[in-house]
Design a protein that fits this description.
The chain has 119 residues and is an all-beta fold. The protein is 0% helix and 55% strand. The chain is built from no helices and 11 strands. The strands form 2 sheets. Strands 2, 4, 5, 6, 9, 10 and 11 form a 7-stranded mixed sheet that branches. It has a 4-stranded antiparallel sheet with strand order 1-3-8-7, with no helix packed on it. The chain is globular and about 40 Å long. The termini are far apart.
């Protein structure tokens, strides 16, 4: 059974930082691109960024470029989302997903972790 479990969310002031983790089990982690998405209240889920299977390629949504960084540790079956210079508009539930970059499709999803940024 595949499981993706996010952690590291919480409440932070604007300008602060958080690091989210997503621990995977039940799949061959290194064969999956891993992505982060987010969903704010009343809004549709949106793409945040993705990292390739080897970790050599990353892509980000324009609204997080320069502030967020995705990394992965295939030995630990874990992907990370380092979030710096957080803004109130970054408040959302953040989800990790496993799949492929091209074509962009995701087979597995975590349950999400709440990030709240206060102004």
């Amino acid at each position: 059974q595949v499981q993706l479990v996010e952690s590291g969310g919480g409440l932070v002031q604007a300008g602060g930082s958080l690091r989210l983790s997503c621990a995977a089990s039940g799949l061959t982690f290194s064969t999956y691109a891993m992505a982060w998405f987010r969903q704010a209240p009343g809004k549709e889920r949106e793409f945040v960024g993705v990292i390739s299977r080897s970790g050599t390629i990353t892509r980000y949504a324009d609204f997080v470029k320069g502030r967020f960084t995705i990394s992965r540790d295939n030995a630990k079956n874990t992907v990370y989302l380092q979030m710096n210079s957080l803004k109130p508009e970054d408040t959302a539930v953040y989800y990790c997903a496993g799949g492929s970059i091209a074509p962009m499709s995701y087979d597995y999803w975590g349950q999400g972790t709440q990030v709240t940024v206060s102004s």
